Amino acid sequence: MSQTTAARPHVARRTESIAFVRVVSVACVVGAVLVAGVLLASGEPAVVALGVVLAALPVGPLVGCYLWLDRYEPEPRSLLLAGFCWGAFASTTLAVLLQLPLGEISDEVATVVAAPLTEESTKGFFLLMLFWWRRSEFDGVLDGIVYAGMVGIGFAFVENALYLVSAVVEAEEFGLGPGEALGGTFVVRCLVSPFAHPLFTMFTGVAVGLAIGSRSAVARFCLPVVGWTLAVVLHGLWNGAATWADGSGFLFVYVVLMAPVFVLAIGLALWVRGNERRVLTAALLDAARRGLLPETDIPWLVDLRARRLARSFARTYGEEAGLRAMEEYQQAAVEFGFLHHRYLRGTPPPDFAARGASFVARLSAVRPLISFPGQVVPTR
User: Looking at residues 146-166, what average pLDDT do you find?
Assistant: First the structure.
């Protein structure tokens, strides 16, 4: 009986991971084919290439910002890439398909109501899949912000490319040059508001992060709904701004609503990121009191600068093998710390015991191979 019970978390986790990979992979591949077809059908290859390149310009800086936020407990790069691809291909395609039955309604209703509803639903669905199937990789609010950001960046990239290509094609019909057509569209979509889609979806991400850390079943259901509703409302206000007061409403909403919300979102992200050090310190201190790792290691694990110094020390005295051992120890300790925090809060994942034992085994196996600055360097 004990062997069967112990095997269940591993089997369930494997089944959930396979389901997640299959759904995301199929949706992204089909979406990518359809998006490529739409882009190629929208204009000449040279125009499409130009639109894609221009739309890609803000992607790098935005992704860099989210990776910087994610440095404390980095999420798997494969999941971050999956989030970006979901936003770029699956979400855009699903949103368009969901909007097709609404083609008979007015343009204003489609822009202000239908687009926010469908787009925030399809973007937010990726976060719900993580909540259902990959909860072990979703520790809280900061993870929700990061995953939502990657989905939003991917969605904005493809949407901006489509708008840029359409702008050139429509300009040619009126005898305008591509520079005139691209100028305004590029400034508004790629320079003034590249953060819009990540910001909208962040509300869903924060809500899902709060739900994961909640002890209440009602809160775990209601919080994502509230976050999604806020995302839809803000998205609708943003879309509607361009149609109000002959377009002058855009500037008003941008200054009065979007800019303050954006600043508050940055403040929230920075506060949550800073709080991760306090959370990790408390969790690892409790684990050390239980004899699961040396308390003297904790200062080298909870501070980003100390982590870098430890890796540099390991490379100097242990070369590449020492560096790999230090990276393995740091990664296992940090992941174990956040897992232990969820246990202390009373919201551990279903496979907590199996994952915790795995982390402790990794720490015990690697610890004799490393040392931190000021400690005795192990002989090899």
Answer: 95
Exposure b/e, 219-249, CB count within 10 A at least 16 = b: ebeebbebbbebbbebbbbbbbbeeeeeeee
Asked whether residue 232 falls in the same domain as residue 301, the answer is no
pLDDT score for 175: 63
Asked if 139 and 234 sit in the same domain, the reply is yes
Contact residues for 13 (Cβ-Cβ < 8 A; gap 6+): 136, 351
Phi, psi for residue 275 in degrees, rounded to 5: -70, -20
What are the tens digits of pLDDT across the range 28-46? 999 999 999 999 888 788 8
Total domains in the chain come to 2
Residue of 94, 83, 58 whose CA lies nearest to 189: 58
Q: Are residues 232 and 287 in the same domain?
A: no
Residue 296: exposure state from Cβ atoms within 10 A (0-12, 13-18, ≥19): exposed
Residue 214: phi and psi, rounded to 5, are -95, 145
Q: 275 in a domain, yes or no? A: no
CA distance 323 to 321: 5
Give the rounded percent of residues in the chain with a pLDDT score beyond 90. Answer: 57
